[in-house]
Amino acid sequence: xxxxxxxxxxxxxxxxxxxxxxxxxxxxxxxxxxxxxxxxxxxxxxxxxxxxxxxxxxxxxxxxxxxxxxxxxxxxxxxxxxxxxxxxxxxxxxxxxxxxxxxxxxxxxxxxxxxxxxxxxxxxxxxxxxxxxxxxxxxxxxxxxxxxxxxxxxxxxxxxxxxxxxxxxxxxxxxxxxxxxxxxxxxxxxxxxxxxxxxxxxxxxxxxxxxxxxxxxxxxxxxxxxxxxxxxxxxxxxxxxxxxxxxxxxxxxxxxxxxxxxxxxxxxxxxxxxxxxxxxxxxxxxxxxxxxxxxxxxxxxxxxxxxxxxxxxxxxxxxxxxxxxxxxxxxxxxxxxxxxxxxxxxxxxxxxxxxxxxxxxxxxxxxxxxxxxxxxxxxxxxxxxxxxxxxxxxxxxxxxxxxxxxxxxxxxxxxxxxxxxxxxxxxxxxxxxxxxxxxxxxxxxxxxxxxxxxxxxxxxxxxxxxxxxxxxxxxxxxxxxxxxxxxxxxxxxxxxxxxxxxxxxxxxxxxxxxxxxxxxxxxxxxxxxxxxxxxxxxxxxxxxxxxxxxxxxxxxxxxxxxxxxxxxxxxxxxxxxxxxxxxxxxxxxxxxxxxxxxxxxxxxxxxxxxxxxxxxxxxxx
Length: 621
Fold this sequence. Notes:
Keywords: Endoplasmic reticulum, Lyase, Membrane, NADP, Transmembrane, Transmembrane helix. The protein has 621 residues and is an alpha/beta fold.
């Protein structure tokens, strides 16, 4: 048997090119200067404007749903975040907007009087409200109950219920058959008002956007109504469905079928009495304490838009410059200034692993801030406040990311441990695993490497590890004192394998470069053809040489049983995190005691690597 009729969208194969289906209306609006009030094509402009406003309504509810710092305690379903599978499945959630745009355009052609609506008529609004309560609500209730039976559920409505965690975009995630039916119920009140000669553009916009607003709110997975409201005004329970109320329908599919008004569930005997108790509990808030926090920072203005609050879909892909991101750059720049002046560390996303909640928090500072001498104290205050907050919450491990553990900034975290010796939260930098990942990328039998950033925490550990393996390490550094200090740490029989160099020319015959400091194209020219560039520098080295190969930043893939992960970490692939992040995860899973700050213990590099593999983490390459 073939697929049931109207169970899939006819433009599924178009991907994002589906928006070209709107092109005829856009062309007509532009050609007829439809934005001018007197234009005969003004209706076309209004429909396109309504299309944009509707999309914006769902987008802003999606953004609100993703704001952990604002709504975490009032989440209805707490399972980490929305995972990649659900994001991919709901990627084209807005198909219904395109269909309804064309249904409205057909109606405008079929009934020319609709093209000349008044701006506003209060009588029409009253008629629409009456028809919504008397017709749309009960008919939707009956339709929804029918969709939960037999083939209608298995062939159609089960798609909507396949989403694990409700999101505003889930409201539009349905089959064409369901959308056509809902469109008819949605249009009925406005159509009746227009048929009575009481229609208006204000009614068309107001009713449609209110409908979308309530649908998105009901699926947002955040309880937005205070518990006292429904207790103080008991009748309100039957007039408006809360996000908790609709979530109960998705967990217990035989109840709470109404559109917006639970009154019809009461009349139909399908109202779940536990809905109000759950609503009160969710509105009061509940603490879901993470066991692990990865304390990151923003890389640059463009990367700051790689966030669920900007675009859930784009955040689920590796960070890259898109046309939309370029257009939004001025807004993101203004946001950067605001955060610099007033913001504090905040959570951005979370996932679950082995029963624990793993958070990523962001220090509201960008990469260039860490280069400003006068910003150093402010950044450290932000990091310190985050550590103390995590300690008060009962977090087990807080993992400093990238520049937040810079040696010149805070000694790799030693500053905070020294200031607060009674910390219960374990402060770690995760660089032990980063060193292990980089070292595993170097082929067996390599006799010589060239190392930049040689006296940094990672550079020191890599140099000491390799010299023990009898690999000659050319350490690029201008400081004889720092080089000598590292050489003195090496076993006496291995010290001869550490060689200090001061110029890139010294490596012109070495085909293994390890970059701990950014390499300009001019500096890369000194590498011979066939060189492999390994790196632990942010931002990554530009791939300037076509006759050489470039390794990616040290990273590891999280275990397969990770749940609720739906955000890519900077430019990395799905499910992959930076090695320092993975190092913190291993620290948590292993239950290591004490902090991991300051210098890397070279003797533990192999131990941590084996622990990572034992817990199911894998090299990203």
